[in-house]
Write a structure and sequence with these properties.
The chain is α/β, with parallel strands linked by helices. The chain is 34% helix and 13% strand. It starts with 24 loop residues before the first helix and ends in a 16-residue tail after the last helix. Pyridoxal-5'-phosphate binds next to helix 3 and helix 4.
């Protein structure tokens, strides 16, 4: 009889870990106030007092500005639409190239396509999987307009060299900071270092309002344009009789409701406590993983405060003679929440076929672009290698997890590694006896 749960042994943990929940009485009270008022959203799409939204939305934006020491916070209904608003604010459009990492959530890159611009993928630093600044300059052309930087899993990208390259080549830096709220880089808040930044308030993030997001910037004009993008900016400028009249952008409805803003207001207050706890759990897990041969804990760059949206580790599967899939299946069978990272985004069908809207192949074959782009295998070797081999993400650093749970995780990990011999011939589709 096998020891591993994957082959019928006793699993280390039988109960699933409790779901993440950081919503309490404060949020309930805040939402009830909004419901009692009857005003669930107070945006109006013309120039006037309510162009910028209602009471809770504005309160939230002010609180966000104070908390993150940034001049403008423009709330939106998701980070996905926030990225679209930010690119609209930057004036990115057909014929432009935007440099971006392939290891991120899909919205980072699809936002570029919604502007009919071209994503140019840059390889990653294999320690953090954040984009590698030393690989950027080789990709800059006369069409490059911006760089989108993601601080993956809560670990800041190496922002100083990126900002320096942007300055030298006159490019914008957009920070997709959905995963790193409260994280810092050399003492500054990540998300506020680029020309414009985006935060997420989606349920799956460290703090949330169900759905929601924020665009931040210290630049008056970018803030003005982001607000136009959020609220039908093609019509509202009609009311201005100064140069703003010509700042029209193709607007949309990216507006946050008063209820979401009321929840988000309470969530900002909880951010530091939530990230402190994540850091405590992560440090504890790292100290345990350090003692296991063939396992590397999360890498920490000097001067970075990692807020651990996700804990990542590296397992040397080759050394244990098993595939990544075998390891993940064995850990999952022991009741442990571990996953592979997602593949580099350019391997997805939309980038491989380059049929974004229809068979016209726009924006790739748009006459305003004029270059030939293909996303071949080998484009970002470090990203591909790290996906195929070694990076594992561990959902063990949220507020419902305890150090005792982490001890259990470490027991399961050692069990799987000690019995790796049993996994040698394990392949997908093989019959598993439970
Ligand atoms: C979650 C996430 C988004 C999208 O956020 P939503 O608020 O769900 O739209 C964008 N970028 C990254 C890196 C993310 O992790």
């Amino acid at each position: 009889m096998s020891k591993l749960a994957l082959f019928g042994g006793e699993p280390v943990r039988k109960e699933p870990f409790p779901r993440f929940n950081n919503i309490g009485e404060e949020e309930k009270k805040a939402v009830m106030e909004v419901l009692d008022s009857g005003i669930l959203s107070d945006f109006i799409a013309h120039n006037g007092e309510y162009f910028l939204g209602g009471k809770k939305v504005r309160e939230f934006e002010e609180n966000f500005q104070k908390k993150f020491k940034v001049k403008f916070a423009v709330s939106v209904n998701s980070a996905t639409t926030g990225l679209q608003a930010a690119l609209t604010a930057l004036g990115v459009g057909p014929g432009d190239e935007v440099i971006v990492t392939p290891i991120t959530m899909s919205a980072t890159v699809s936002a570029i396509l919604t502007r009919n611009a071209i994503p140019i993928f840059v390889d990653v630093d294999q320690r953090t999987l954040n984009l590698d600044p030393s690989k950027i300059e080789g990709l800059i052309t006369d069409k490059t307009k911006a760089i989108i930087v993601v601080s993956l899993w809560g670990h800041s990208a190496d922002l100083d060299p990126i900002m320096e390259i942007a300055r030298k080549h006159n490019l914008y830096v957009l920070e997709d900071n959905a995963q790193c709220p409260g994280g810092t880089y050399k003492g500054r808040f990540v998300g506020t270092i680029g020309h414009i930044g985006v935060f997420s308030f989606n349920f799956h993030k460290i703090i949330h309002s169900g759905e929601g997001g924020v665009v931040v910037t210290n630049d008056d004009k970018l803030a003005f344009r982001a607000r136009l993008a959020r609220n039908h900016g093609d019509v509202v400028v009609d009311a201005y009789d100064d140069e703003r009249r010509f700042e029209h952008v193709l607007g949309s409805n990216y507006r946050m409701t008063e209820m979401e803003a009321a929840v988000a207001n309470e969530q900002i207050k909880k951010l530091d406590g939530l990230t402190d706890y994540r850091i405590e759990l992560a440090d504890y897990l790292s100290s345990k993983l350090k003692e296991i041969d063939g396992v590397t804990p999360t890498y920490l760059q000097d001067g970075v405060k990692h807020v651990y949206y996700i804990y990542s580790m590296h397992v040397d599967h080759d050394r244990f003679g098993m595939t990544k899939k075998a390891f993940l299946d064995a850990m999952n069978a022991e009741g442990m929440p571990v996953w592979s990272i997602r593949p580099p985004l350019y391997t997805l069908p939309i980038y491989q076929s380059r049929e974004v809207y229809n068979k016209t192949m726009c924006p790739f074959e748009c006459k305003h672009y004029g270059r030939k782009i293909e996303y071949k295998k080998g484009l970002c070797p470090a990203a591909e290698r790290m996906y195929e081999k070694s990076f594992i993400i561990v959902d063990m650093v949220r507020n419902s997890i305890t150090k005792k749970d982490i001890d259990e995780f470490v027991i399961a990990l050692k069990k799987v590694l000690d019995n790796a011999g049993e996994l040698k011939d394990y392949a997908r589709g093989e019959k598993v006896v439970r």
